[in-house]
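Hi F.,

I've been meaning to write this up properly since the lab meeting, where we talked about keeping a consistent format for the predictions we share between groups. The idea is simple: the sequence comes first, exactly as it goes in, then the structure tokens exactly as they come out, then a line or two of notes. No screenshots and no reformatting. I'm using this chain as the first example so we have something concrete to point to.
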Amino acid sequence: MVLIETRARRFTVPWAGDSRSIEVPAGHPTMEITFTNLPPLADPAAALRHAMDHPTASPPLRALVRPGNRVALLTGDRITDYMLGSRDGLGHVILDYLNAAGVPDSDITLVFAPGTHAHRNIDEKLGPALIGRVGRYVRHRADVDEDLTFIGYTPRGNALWVNRAVTEADVVVGFGEISPNTHGGWTGGGKMILPGVAGQASIEHNHRQLMLPSIPLGLADGNPLRRDMEDAAALLGLDFKIDVLVDEHARMVDIVAGDFVAAHRAALPRARQIWMTPVEPADICLFHPADWRDRTLEGSMFISINGADLATKDDGVIIACVAAVNGYSDGPGMPYSAMMSSRDALKLRAEELARSMIQGHGNARTGSIHFATRHVLDRKKVYLVTEGIDAGEAREFGFSGVYADPQSALNAAMEEKGNRSSIVVNTPCGLCWRQMPWREG
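Output, unedited:
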């Protein structure tokens, strides 16, 4: 935690490739949410081999495979794709390890496990050397029913379809990364199966559970989305999971492996150290969604506004600094339904979005992201600082006020909350955009 003395302080807010500054006058207890960079591991390949041989609550990976086994190696699209492939080549370390255990490359299927995310440059990130080495390469598509196999029901009432390339494997190994997330509280662990390689119906049923009284961001054991994901991974049989923690340059700072629940929970204390800052809920939270996310409104609220919600009191004021120089979105924006754009979906109140998702009228991923945003906008006063969003439409989205610069919005919030109002500032850059207030659970 960085606790700033009660004196005048100046902060820099990124702004569409430039910056804006704000000054907090003396007399306002002010805290800053920061990202903690731990030292990168000197030899990531050696650390990976050690993790596979000394896992948490599991035999070594070499003890789980034998000659003749078909192995599926899964990775998602957040950092781990190019860590395995084009940048770090860690996929070759895993393949060499499996070869030494008697599994040839020809018996290994490399599976890109993005859930319902787009396949952005995935072949380039994994690289031709890794793709060309394995026996088969599969890009999961959640909406292609003929590629899916039904494997049963989770204890929480989710019907689970999974990519057939994974269900056909004798041993399933996942390689992921751990950071805060609204969907499941954290990335990593069992998310590799649901949503990673699950069918769209299974993913949408899971994502509808985001409608919690408490924000799911940063929750693990107390999170029904996370528990459903882990039930799905157990039902499928995720045999061995490898998860990494990274610094702001996406360099590995720690690694865990083994049982997908036990290893994930063992990593969370250090993950919290990296991503979370202990702060008291404040009267005002000013946040920026990170330098590369502020050019449109649509994607800039995801996770960032939920962190700001946790950082403010129930009657607090949130200031969202989003330049949005490209307007609401680049292009048509995320799909919601045939009858409604994501732009229109954000204009629905949270309970209207909830009804729409429960009735299956729209894409649950887009709907759940917008629900998480509107759930904040409907309960708290949120000021938008922008140059690319019309003030009238901003109010349709649920913002209480629109300002041209961060200082004007902060002055208005301080006037409303009083001379001694407490302030939290969260202005991440780059990869650090998921940084958030401390949360246990």
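Notes:
The chain has two domains: 2-33+279-437, 44-274.
DSSP finds 16 helices and 21 strands in the chain.

If this format works for you, I'll send the rest the same way.

G.
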